[in-house]
């Protein structure tokens, strides 16, 4: 009798992009292939180099590959990031941007006990490029906040808290000055909170939140906020736990999901084998949880944790001298 476990099979869109995106993607796939999952990788092009070669940094063919996949792994985009990532988010209606801020050992973290999630609205607000225009006097940017989008992202945050055993959700805004737009966000936040009576709620102004992330980051569990505020606070959160080299992200929507590190293409070190692959790997772990492969995600996470705990094989940004693939090999060996 054959008692071997049948592997689950998934089609994954792989878009390495520019700069170190290619290196961290290679390292991540090297480890993913060790898991007890059957992945069918379909590669797509996007980014600066793609734009120079094809005249378009995000070809329709790449969008189709992402649309048809179970999930997408994205490496990094350079100067064309707004034309690539933002467009993918909009085309695929990826309204929720998730950025976990978690302490790992030997990462130069400022605190050893930080673990919270920033849930950022991804489709509107001030962070949409086509809502800017030049005028005779300078420029104008429109900030659009809709009840539908804010209710959707706030409900996502509360549901995330419920499903991940988090007990508190913090709404972040600037309703004392932006009384109509952020006033709406605050009103909707407490309306949605009524559906989750078991979850503790609080709200802070964004400037106060920026201070509290430095003075009391342990008090946060899930933060939900608008697009631009979420982007800024996420990078501040990265500074708490060792930098962008250990910060993953997910873009979740109605029509698909994309997982990427937030460190960018880093052209100054591209091609030198110095890039830290852990943010890309943690993004892949978020992908595994998205497709329901929690057991394999736990194994991957434990393998990363062991390498970091040992502290012997680290990239330069974490104080070591190991290469991108040396880190990947050590993590793979731990699997």
Describe this structure in words.
This protein has 335 residues and is α/β, with parallel strands linked by helices. It has 2 domains: 8-96 and 250-335, Isopropylmalate Dehydrogenase; 110-240, 3-Layer(aba) Sandwich (Isopropylmalate Dehydrogenase), CATH 3.40.718.10. It has 11 helices and 12 strands. The strands form 2 sheets. It has a 10-stranded mixed β-sheet with strand order 2-1-3-12-11-4-5-10-8-9, with helices on both faces. The chain has a two-stranded antiparallel sheet with strand order 6-7.
Write a concise keyword list for the protein shown above.
11 helices; 335 residues; Isopropylmalate Dehydrogenase; two-stranded antiparallel sheet; alpha/beta
SSE blueprint:
Blueprint: E1 9-17, H1 20-32, E2 38-43, H2 48-54, H3 60-68, E3 71-76, H4 81-91, E4 96-102, E5 115-121, E6 132-134, E7 139-141, H5 147-163, E8 168-173, H6 181-193, E9 200-205, H7 206-215, E10 222-225, H8 227-240, E11 248-252, E12 257-261, H9 278-290, H10 294-310, H11 324-334
Parallel strand pairs: 1-2, 1-3, 3-12, 5-10, 8-9, 8-10
Antiparallel strand pairs: 4-5, 4-11, 6-7, 11-12
Structural domains: how many: 2
Count of alpha and pi helical runs: 11
Shape designation: globular
The whole-angstrom Rg is 20 Å
Give a brief rundown of this model.
With 335 residues, the chain is α/β, with parallel strands linked by helices.
């Amino acid at each position: 009798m054959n008692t071997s476990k049948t592997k689950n099979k998934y089609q994954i869109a792989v878009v390495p992009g520019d700069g170190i995106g290619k290196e961290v993607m290679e390292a991540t796939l090297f480890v993913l292939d060790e898991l007890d999952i059957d992945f069918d990788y379909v590669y797509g092009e996007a980014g600066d180099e793609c734009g120079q070669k094809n005249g378009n940094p995000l070809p329709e063919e790449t969008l189709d590959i992402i649309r048809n996949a179970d999930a997408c792994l994205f490496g990094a985009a350079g100067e064309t990031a707004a034309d690539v990532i933002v467009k993918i988010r909009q085309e695929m209606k990826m309204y929720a941007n998730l950025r976990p801020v978690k302490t790992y050992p030997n990462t130069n973290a400022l605190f050893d006990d930080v673990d919270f999630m920033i849930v950022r609205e991804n489709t509107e607000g001030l962070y949409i490029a086509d809502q800017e225009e030049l005028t005779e006097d300078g420029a104008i940017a429109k900030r659009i906040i809709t009840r539908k989008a804010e209710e959707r992202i706030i409900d996502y945050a509360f549901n995330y808290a419920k499903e991940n055993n988090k007990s508190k959700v913090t709404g972040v805004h600037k309703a004392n000055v932006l009384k109509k737009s952020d006033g709406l966000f605050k009103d909707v936040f407490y309306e949605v909170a009524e559906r989750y009576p078991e979850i503790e709620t609080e709200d802070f102004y964004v400037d106060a939140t920026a201070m509290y992330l430095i003075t009391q980051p342990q008090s946060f569990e899930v933060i939900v906020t608008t697009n631009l505020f979420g982007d800024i606070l996420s990078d501040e959160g990265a500074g708490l736990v060792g930098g962008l080299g250990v910060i993953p992200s997910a873009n979740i929507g109605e029509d698909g999901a994309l997982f990427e590190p937030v460190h960018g293409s880093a052209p100054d070190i591209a091609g030198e084998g110095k890039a830290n692959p852990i943010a890309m790997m943690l993004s892949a772990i978020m992908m595994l949880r998205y497709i329901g492969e929690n057991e394999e995600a736990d194994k991957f996470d434990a393998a990363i944790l062991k390498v970091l705990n040992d502290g012997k094989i680290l990239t330069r940004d974490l104080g070591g001298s190991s290469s991108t693939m040396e880190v990947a090999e050590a993590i793979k060996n731990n699997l």
